[in-house]
UniProtKB/TrEMBL annotation:
<comment type="pathway">
    <text>Purine metabolism; AMP biosynthesis via salvage pathway; AMP from adenine: step 1/1.</text>
</comment>
<dbReference type="GO" id="GO:0006166">
    <property type="term" value="P:purine ribonucleoside salvage"/>
</dbReference>
<dbReference type="Pfam" id="PF00156">
    <property type="entry name" value="Pribosyltran"/>
</dbReference>
<dbReference type="GO" id="GO:0005829">
    <property type="term" value="C:cytosol"/>
</dbReference>
<dbReference type="InterPro" id="IPR029057">
    <property type="entry name" value="PRTase-like"/>
</dbReference>
<keyword id="KW-0963">Cytoplasm</keyword>
<dbReference type="GO" id="GO:0006168">
    <property type="term" value="P:adenine salvage"/>
</dbReference>
<comment type="subunit">
    <text>Homodimer.</text>
</comment>
<keyword id="KW-0660">Purine salvage</keyword>
<keyword id="KW-0328">Glycosyltransferase</keyword>
<dbReference type="InterPro" id="IPR050120">
    <property type="entry name" value="Adenine_PRTase"/>
</dbReference>
<dbReference type="GO" id="GO:0003999">
    <property type="term" value="F:adenine phosphoribosyltransferase activity"/>
</dbReference>
<keyword id="KW-0808">Transferase</keyword>
<dbReference type="InterPro" id="IPR000836">
    <property type="entry name" value="PRTase_dom"/>
</dbReference>
<protein>
    <recommendedName>
        <fullName>adenine phosphoribosyltransferase</fullName>
        <ecNumber>2.4.2.7</ecNumber>
    </recommendedName>
</protein>
<comment type="similarity">
    <text>Belongs to the purine/pyrimidine phosphoribosyltransferase family.</text>
</comment>
<dbReference type="InterPro" id="IPR005764">
    <property type="entry name" value="Ade_phspho_trans"/>
</dbReference>
Length: 212
């Protein structure tokens, strides 16, 4: 298993002071976008340039020496973190968009949500076979969107190195084994936990959440 770094000295882990400030800057909005949902609002963090910079640099520090060719950002908040991470790594940025948002020829991957289905699209030719790609989003909830992103990239031959999110829901805090592998999923903010990106559709580990 890759490194696990906990905040506040949990399990003897190393405390990164940047994570403390990031955690404090993210606002939790109850009952949004519907009753029962606790929405993690990163817009309050974006109002604090030093904290936003630290959040980007945490990702960059992790991937600087991994020979990353491309950063794929999941619509929409992956578009906030993805481009500055890509620029810092000297990598290209690939937007993974909702249907009918990209003007050129696209490849599409559908996935199941709690309340229906959706899909992600990517321009044909955006990534070449063998290119090392990381997938960036702000939060992992059910995992359905990340599953679709992984499948989309792997269908064209990309090497998905990791998925990386700033925020994980509390039930991720104890760690997770998905499809028997703990090596390709990375969470920041409250803790850093490595898990396989091929996330199962079983929602028992993630609590109630929706992709918005």
């Amino acid at each position: 298993m890759k490194e696990v770094v906990m905040l506040e000295g949990e399990n003897g882990g190393v405390v990164d002071p940047r994570l403390q400030a990031i955690k404090a800057a993210i606002r939790v909005v109850p009952h949004f976008p519907k009753p029962g949902i606790m929405f993690n609002d990163i817009t309050t963090m974006l109002l604090r340039p030093k904290v936003f910079k630290d959040a980007v640099e945490i990702f960059v520090d992790r991937y600087r020496d991994m020979s990353i060719s491309a950063v794929a950002g999941v619509e929409a908040r992956g578009f906030i973190f993805g481009p500055p991470i890509a620029l810092a790594l000297g990598a290209k940025f690939i937007p993974l968009r909702k249907p009918k948002k990209l003007p050129g020829e696209v490849i599409s991957e559908s996935y199941v949500l709690e309340y229906g289905t959706d899909s992600l699209e990517m321009h044909v030719g955006a990534v070449q076979p063998g290119e090392r790609v990381i997938i960036i989003d702000d939060l992992v909830a059910t995992g359905g969107t990340l599953c679709a992103a992984i499948n989309l990239l792997e269908r064209v031959g990309a090497d998905v190195v990791e998925c990386a999110c700033l925020i994980g829901l509390p039930k991720f805090k104890g760690g997770c084994w998905l499809n028997g592998k703990p090596d390709k999923f990375w969470l920041g903010n409250i803790y850093i936990q490595a898990c396989d990106p091929r996330l199962q559709t079983d929602m028992n580990y993630c609590g109630q959440a929706v992709d918005v």
